[in-house]
Amino acid sequence: MIVPHLPIIQVVIPLLAAPICIVMHRPLAAWITALIASWLTFAVAVWLLINVLNADAPILYSLGGWAAPWGIEYRVDTINALILLIVSGVSATVLPYSLASVRHEIPLRQHHLFYAALMLCLCGLLGIAITGDIFNAFVFLEISSLSSYALISMGASRRALTSAFRYLILGTIGATFILLGIGLLYMVTGTLNMEDLANRLPEAVPSRTVFVAIAFLTVGISLKLALFPFHVWLANAYAYAPSVVSAFLSGTATKVAAYLFLRFTFGLFGQVFSLSELPLESILTPLALIAMLLGAIAAILQTNIKRMLAYSSISQIGYIVLGFGMASQTGITASMLHLFNHALMKSALFLAAGNIIFKTGTANLDALSGIGKRMPITMSAFLLSGLSLVGIPGTVGFISKWYFLLAAIEQARWLMVSVIIFSSLLGAIYIWRVAEIAFLRPAIEPYSMKEPTSSMLIPTCVLAGSCVYFGLETSLTVSLARLAATNVISVEP
Amino acid sequence: MELLGHYNYWITIVLAMVGFYIVISSHNLVKKIIGLNIFQASVFLLYISMGKIIGGSAPIISEGTQVYSNPLPHVLILTAIVVGVSTTAFGLALILKIRNVYGTIEEDELQELDR
Description:
Chain A is an all-alpha fold.
């Protein structure tokens, strides 16, 4: 009885959990509510993925029983199912961690509000991934954005406030651009359903309105995605947010934006149209390459460990967009793999950084001298996921970079190949710098404390461990990513 | 008179550019929020004028009417207006907190204080 309603349940659980958190009011009760809700959503996401793979066809769900082009339709195929799994998985691992970490960083009387905002953000991100209606996607985008502004502004430093405000301004501009694009598409086709739009758009193609719509949508989503020229909000927002929020958002928010990008450029406009009639490829590829290099160089120059990780995120987003720009099946496979892998690695890194800040009270790299001896488990997790970011064989990072290289070699683009390798080497520099400070320098300060509580340690280790697990056991992720890629590029030119 | 025939779009474009310019150019955070509001209002106008059908009446079934306006864009924009209002409310609340912590809401002074 409940199984046909799973797609809507996926979104409704966190949506209901948010007001319950507020009603509960007591910090512990709110945390338990959020924990149960996010574990339930994770279970639902796993179930949906298994069902999609078994059914070999998308799962459709009409809201309120209204048939597709008129009503809102939820549509789960292999791509969404993977994104749903990433988002709910990250939230399910981050929540156990949040109990101790949030208690440390946020005043007790705000805890219920914090968990409510976190649940709303989760609801919005899942909603964007699952919906088959572009206006619905906009509404969920705003739900997730508004709650993430609130989450970021709760950071301990006062700079959290100004970074949240800057993100608010840029995020709202991006969302309004997306709204404009959706409006123009509706004007031309008279429909908001993604499937319907994909069918009707080819008839309306040589129209300036459609081109303008694509331009607005591309810029709007790139702002949310933090692609190179639009990345300014990301570094401070992730650096000054509470540790839990940095780990959660870095693993989910940009991934969902990347998914939306994929949906619009390939799903709606069709690969042939986006890449042959429009110079999208020649715009995306240089931007992605610049993002990869500049992000990594900026990361090397940082002295704050969280800012360093944030800049590294900008560089990794470049990789993902590069795969989209290649528009080949291998390219998209690489991007989908990297979506999944980067969510694991970066969340693990931010959780490990959160452990360090929890214990030392500072995010300054120089203050971490010799910390590897005090916190061996945390630093090993950091090093492991850091090596994965660089792309050492045996970790997930290697798998996705390998596919990026394959895709670039396939098209004989040697500049791209060299930039991929060079950017990975730059990644090795900033990870090595942390390792060198933590393990090789003497411990200057007599820290009386050791590792943080196990509730923070276990999620960090689980994520870092999965970086290795999925690096060795690649059949599941690669086959999923390949399936998703064939779904996207079904129409070969 | 092709140019004037589409005056609703001209208003949309002008409002959007005015709003966008205010967001980018002003240093005062409240003014930025006002600019954002004008920018969003321009998109609301675009949607609302999209629903108008020449000679169409209000979308309520009545005898003797054949042509109705399209109600869907209006419904959509109601949602977007709600989103806009909540963004403004949150932005203003954030400005209040920034004012309490920093003692100023001028962007250049904020950057100076954080240096």
